[in-house]
């Protein structure tokens, strides 16, 4: 799933390639991905891209060329969605429900440059909104503070009284916005904290380390991602991971084997030596969770 660093990089990519270009045509290949009906996607034709920004894990393409009627094309890429830039594209409208293409925006001219929103797999969760105000998107309206804007004092306030596990708190977008499964694994590993630690029970020193680590991990990922082409971002993300998606491989810090805990259709990775005092956490597939 694209998280804060990748979405920031995609916004940067659009700012470099799409700004000041007019929309020639919008192809909607999946009506289920479109979550709004007014304004219609065709109202973008003739509008000029004026910016691109990030709201946590939401990507917004902005059309403020008419100050009295700004529009925002906002997408949440979910787990398997992506934005793909193209220099040329087919002029034939796509057939609905065929392939990964969900929406295509032609810029300058039909068949010219632009971008596609795509989603792999059978579970289609990518969401597209065309709104006059980003706050009209329910997920954006509910967002907590952005992870990069949270300092040590604010983090302490957020964790006070929260009896949930650290992994849960870090990935709850209404509590801290922008962090998903992958970067929460990386942050907790770097901070040497257990995913199952209780947020409200962290010591002051642990809060200090977590606040510093959260900012450092995300900032480093943003710096590595920004400037990369959209096509190379996934590979860049994977190459920077120390424990996430590295089950069975040695921890780059201590050499212990990276372990995995699975639940529902997701999983997370951690290092027992670095994070849980050498004790492996129980996998819900096999037994009750170790507290």
From TrEMBL:
Family matches, as SUPFAM superfamilies: Glucocorticoid receptor-like (DNA-binding domain), N-terminal domain of MutM-like DNA repair proteins, S13-like H2TH domain
Keywords, alphabetical: DNA damage, DNA repair, DNA-binding, Glycosidase, Hydrolase, Lyase, Metal-binding, Multifunctional enzyme, Zinc, Zinc-finger
Signal peptide segment: none
BP terms from Gene Ontology: base-excision repair
A molecular-function term among this protein's GO annotations: 8-oxo-7,8-dihydroguanine DNA N-glycosylase activity
Pfam families, sorted: Fapy_DNA_glyco (PF01149), H2TH (PF06831), zf-FPG_IleRS (PF06827)
Cofactor: Zn(2+)
Formamidopyrimidine-DNA glycosylase catalytic domain: residues covered: 2-167
Catalysed reactions, semicolon-separated: Hydrolysis of DNA containing ring-opened 7-methylguanine residues, releasing 2,6-diamino-4-hydroxy-5-(N-methyl)formamidopyrimidine; 2'-deoxyribonucleotide-(2'-deoxyribose 5'-phosphate)-2'-deoxyribonucleotide-DNA = a 3'-end 2'-deoxyribonucleotide-(2,3-dehydro-2,3-deoxyribose 5'-phosphate)-DNA + a 5'-end 5'-phospho-2'-deoxyribonucleoside-DNA + H(+)
Span of domain FPG-type: 242-276
Family: Belongs to the FPG family.
PANTHER family, per the entry: FORMAMIDOPYRIMIDINE-DNA GLYCOSYLASE
The protein's name in its UniProt record: Formamidopyrimidine-DNA glycosylase
Annotated source species: Pseudonocardia endophytica
């Amino acid at each position: 799933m694209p998280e804060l660093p990748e979405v920031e990089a995609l916004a940067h990519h659009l700012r470099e390639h799409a700004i000041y270009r007019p929309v020639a045509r919008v192809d909607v290949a999946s009506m289920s991905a479109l979550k709004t009906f007014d304004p219609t996607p065709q109202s973008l034709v003739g509008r000029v891209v004026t910016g691109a920004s990030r709201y946590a894990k939401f990507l917004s393409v902005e059309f403020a060329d008419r100050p009295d009627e700004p529009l925002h094309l906002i997408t949440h890429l979910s787990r398997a969605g992506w934005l793909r830039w193209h220099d040329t594209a087919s002029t034939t409208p796509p057939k609905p429900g065929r392939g990964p293409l969900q929406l295509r925006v032609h810029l300058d001219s039909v068949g010219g440059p632009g971008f596609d929103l795509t989603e792999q797999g059978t579970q289609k969760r990518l969401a597209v909104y065309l709104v006059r105000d980003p706050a009209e998107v329910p997920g954006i309206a509910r967002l907590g503070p952005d992870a990069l804007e949270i300092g040590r004092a604010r983090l302490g306030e957020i964790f006070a009284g929260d009896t949930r596990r650290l992994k849960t708190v870090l990935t709850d977008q209404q509590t801290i916005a922008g962090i998903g499964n992958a970067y929460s694994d990386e942050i907790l590993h770097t901070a040497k904290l257990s995913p199952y630690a209780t947020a409200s029970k962290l010591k002051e020193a642990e809060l200090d380390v977590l606040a510093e680590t959260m900012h450092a991990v995300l900032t480093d990922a943003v710096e590595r991602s920004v400037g990369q082409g959209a096509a190379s971002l996934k590979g860049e993300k994977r190459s920077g991971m120390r424990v996430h998606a590295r089950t069975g491989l040695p921890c780059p810090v201590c050499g212990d084997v990276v372990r995995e805990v699975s639940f529902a259709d997701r999983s997370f990775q951690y290092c027992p030596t670095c994070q849980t005092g050498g004790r492996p956490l129980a996998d819900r597939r096999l037994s009750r969770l170790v507290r």
